[in-house]
Amino acid sequence: MPSISQRGVIMPSSPIRKLVPYSDAAKARGLRVFHLNIGQPDILTPEVALAAVKNANFPIVEYTHSAGMPEYRRKLSKYYAASGIDIKPDEMLVTCGGSEAVLFAFMSCLDPLDEIIVPEPFYANYEAFAASAGACVKPITSTIETGFTLPSIEEFEKVITPKTKAIMICNPNNPTGYLYSEQEFMQLRDLIIKYDLFLIVDEVYREFCYDGAQHFSCMYLKGVDDNVIMIDSVSKRYSECGLRIGLLATKNKAVIASAMKQAQARLCPPTFGQIAAMASLDVPEEYFKAMNEEYRRRRNFLLDGLNKIPGVYSPMPRGAFYTVAKLPIDDSERFCQWLLSEFSYNNQTLMLAPAAGFYSNRLLGRNEVRIAYVLNCDDLAIAIDLLARALKSYPGRTPESGSPLMEHEKRWLQGNK
Amino acid sequence: MPSISQRGVIMPSSPIRKLVPYSDAAKARGLRVFHLNIGQPDILTPEVALAAVKNANFPIVEYTHSAGMPEYRRKLSKYYAASGIDIKPDEMLVTCGGSEAVLFAFMSCLDPLDEIIVPEPFYANYEAFAASAGACVKPITSTIETGFTLPSIEEFEKVITPKTKAIMICNPNNPTGYLYSEQEFMQLRDLIIKYDLFLIVDEVYREFCYDGAQHFSCMYLKGVDDNVIMIDSVSKRYSECGLRIGLLATKNKAVIASAMKQAQARLCPPTFGQIAAMASLDVPEEYFKAMNEEYRRRRNFLLDGLNKIPGVYSPMPRGAFYTVAKLPIDDSERFCQWLLSEFSYNNQTLMLAPAAGFYSNRLLGRNEVRIAYVLNCDDLAIAIDLLARALKSYPGRTPESGSPLMEHEKRWLQGNK
User: Fold this and answer.
1) Can you give the pTM of this predicted structure?
2) ipTM over 0.90
């Protein structure tokens, strides 16, 4: 039998999806499973997007331009301009999901054995795409105790080598919900100039910022046009995960040209997806306002509930719809599996994502989980109750308690209910 | 400025699409351009597929299973069974077009510097996907004089090295239209057993076989379950290029597991595409019969017309909807560009694909073009007339004439009008 590639062997499995067989089995036993493990929002896809697909009237579903429909790119250019971001239609490629945009960016910037620095915990699939490119993710650790702020520039410099080609940031962050500040980006700017690095920023959660916080886009950075690559997607923004429409944007002409060769090789992004995504740009400002208000309510409800459970701690996320929580447990993979295979209360249980899968250093995150607040508050209430009960009976419970909620966070939470 | 990856530099541009600016300019000058350069069929997408999308009734466009919707895979399994092909739902991955299936197969089988043997001329994008994997395409040449039959096994053995991991075949072939025989596949079977190689077969044109010829699928081969990987797509079969739905199938569990890790990293194939593709499986047998009859008519019309032009020769393709023709010209890239920028007759011109882009050896195919017969016979008649006129006035015309139509081909063409 011919052997598969080394890449195929070392590529990590999705840590988020590998508990699926246990959840399937739990459902087969008749349990209701509350899914806080995945980023599939329950928000309705905008009617205007669904209508555009229904009303699409062509007799042949043809290829589109490899870079995406020109009219969609022109419209996207206006969408970004409204946030003060200057991206011309020929500075962007429409991709098959944000995933393909990450793949194109890595393939265009990283050769085998090149290194890319990513603050951990990070979106696990970055590691798979780095493996596709034969490149190596160099993690630097951000910690729950500091609320997952950007590690100091000294930490970055410690791991920079001649093989370092890029830094990757997800802002707002998946899995932590941390929203990077302008000041943090200015530090990164100095760093990429000093070491001549690419800065690849995943902004798929750009519209999910709470408490009036402004999102600072990497495209705002001055003087680093050739360094910066932005990744985007409509999946979360409009609850359109299944469309598979994303974006790569950069002013670096060599990167766009390289990514375009990959785009031409795979011919084009999905036609129906582009039609729906283009129509979605017409949703009114109120859509985002209502969605943000709903997520803010859920976040406050979740964080309040979590931090009231003895031994549990989660810092307050200011963006996206995830939070990482520290639990009084021995091992979150074991705990999450136990939730699905041994625990139940009133014929219900819950599914969480073990945070270890979001750390490149497999020793970290062992007592942390990622929780996606993609359920409404009624369901969140049940899920929080289930978690509290589960932690009482879990055999691997540890005596150590989580970090306490900091005083300023308590005050802040009080004021934001 | 940070430099892009070596991969990004060496990855070839699409030879089919790089004439697009000249064609755009020709249209801007008011010319009508007959497109025989691309595989975008003019056949209507089945009504049942478009209706399935219009009638899809869900409030949220969610992610699907990373391997593709289970019900779609079950239905595909039955589609293949009807052709005597045994593929179980867990032996297949639904991909974002056949392109992604090729990428997943290469990524799963080939490490950097590994080699894959492909008879040339071949579908140019294979080279881009090999470059993505860091692997090297080793071409062996099939010639227009032999009608593009499979090169002898000795030719394969000449280029096999310890780095050779796979052989790739497209059947029926793009760009040549050649349909490989069972006997040729039995020779390949012996070869992959002898050298323990993967055999990756692109069968996206499987339903396009003419004159009663049977398609021989790689999945028919016995005793090489762990070597064989099949690539498929709905793009041409149902005229659904824009759906971006393809397939990777293999009984090799390690390959499926590796491809599945890539599939999970990119989350899922497009939801609307899967809905349309699934509905397409209900088109009646008559759909293919009518489509095949139409393409057969076009092929005969085109080949008859081409071979009547002095100095032009094209062997009779038995599958797909392409043919490669030898023209009495100095350089097909120059000729194709000249057609778009300098030639016109009655305010019309035509666009062809220079065949050099389909050869890895850039010295070959310089006087050949690929012609896709994706236009109806009325338009083909105009296109053939334009080609004949263009060849008369092209300044780079060479005195040498193309290979004559062989006697048995003339007889055959006579009987198949």
Assistant:
1) 0.94
2) yes
